[in-house]
Each structure stands twice: as structure tokens, then as C-alpha cells.
Amino acid sequence: MTHFRLSRRAAAIAALAIGAVAFSGAAEATQPLPFPFLPLLPQPAALQPAPFVPQVQALPQRDEDAAPAELPARLKRQTVSYATHEAPGTIIIDTPNTHLYYVLGGGRAIRYGIGVGRDGFTWSGTQSITKKAEWPDWTPPPEMIARQPYLPRHMAGGPGNPLGARAMYLGGTIYRIHGTNAPSTIGTHVSSGCIRLTNEDVSDLYSRVSVGAKVIVLPDSRRADNSSGRRG
Predict the structure, then answer these.
(1) Which of 130, 155, 199, 229 is a Cys-bridge partner for 138, taking CB atoms 3.0 to 4.6 Å apart?
(2) What are the distances in angstroms from CA 102 to CA 82, 164, 231?
């Protein structure tokens, strides 16, 4: 009997000891391990940082890539009937109607659409071609800089140059017959006195004109009744 009681008491003491050990082990299990041994699991896509994509800025479109402006029929280069006593090779500038005629002879001429001087900057008279230049540099004259001081003092020739692809210089004046990188201004009174053509037309005229050729600029007072002299 005594042995049975001792056995039951020993069993209780053993149970308490096992419980204490289990509690101690559980407590230790809750403490973080100094070095995690779990494998690195992939993060959900929503939590992953977005991949770095370098930003590429689009290059500006070059003027020469743009579609050329469509000129009205009256401003397109064409061979027309033109009665004049001037010799072949003469240039006649019809300021009010924004036309330039290159005399062929036999009552014919090549007619080009042009841009001319704005109000207060038109002029008339007879000059001659004293110089020709391809893709000319531009040096604004002092008179122009005085009116527009923000202009560059010099600009190298090229597609962005206001004188365009070709220039023909008129006598000892500051005026030129030249191309333009703004074909929409053909048919308008917009310049400071120079005569402008599209780059295609000025290149065609340039190939025909010789240094020394006569140039007649008609006065603006000859404005035709059926034309405003501006682009339609």
C-alpha cells in the first residue's frame, strides 16, 4: 500500500517536471533565433519594387522631315505668257501680286510665287545680281538689328537659316532674293524688303540666273484691282 502511494506521488512529481520542461521549451521557442534558417521566399508581385526603366526623350522632329506646305495654284512655279520688251534672263518682281517672272523671251516667262516686304518696307527700282551663294550665312544688317535687337549677329548657313538654300544679292543694297524655311509666308507681305521663294523655287531660279542679270522691282502702287497682293 505504501509502495502504491509512493508510486502515485512519484508519477505526479514526474508529470510536474515534464510540464515545466515543456513550458520552458515553449518559451524558448518564442524567442527569435539569431540567424534565420528559413529559405528566402519570393515576394508577391504587388510588393516587389517596379523595375527601373530609363526614360528616353523623343528627339524633336526636324523641319525637313515635315510635309512641305502646299501653295495655292497661283503661287506655284509655272511657265506663263508674259509680254515684255526686256531681254531673256531678266527678273521682274511684281510686288503687289507677289510674283517673280524670269523672262524666257518669245512672250514667255517662268512665274514664281514670292513673299515681299511688309507695309513700310517695300521698294522699287532696277538692280543687278552681284553675287550668288548656296546655303548662305546670314548677317543681319545694322538697320534690322536696331529694330530687332534680339536677332543673332551672325548665323551660319543651313536648313534653319532664314535665307534658305540659295541667295542672290541685289547690287549694293541690303536686299536679296533668297529661299525660306517658312514656305507658308510665300504670297504675303512679311519681310524687311527681301524677296523670298520656297527653297525648291529659289534653287530652280538660282540655276538659271547669271551674275550681272538685270532685276526690275515694280512699285507696290501697281497693285492689281483683282488681287490684294497677299496670299489667298
Answers:
(1) 155
(2) 10, 20, 20
Q: List, in order of start, the domains of the chain with CATH numbers.
A: 74-222 (2.40.440.10)
Q: Enumerate the active-site residues.
A: 178, 194
- pLDDT of 225 above 60: no
Q: What is the pLDDT of residues 33-70, one digit of tens each?
A: 444 444 555 555 555 555 544 443 333 333 444 445 58
Which of 6-20, 33-47, 90-104, 150-164 is modeled with the greatest confidence?
90-104
DSSP 87-150: PTT-EEEETTTTEEEEEEETTEEEEEE-BEE-TT----EEEEEEEEEES--B---HHHHHH-TT
Give me the amino acid identity at 232: G
Cβ atoms of residues 109 and 89 within 8 Å: no
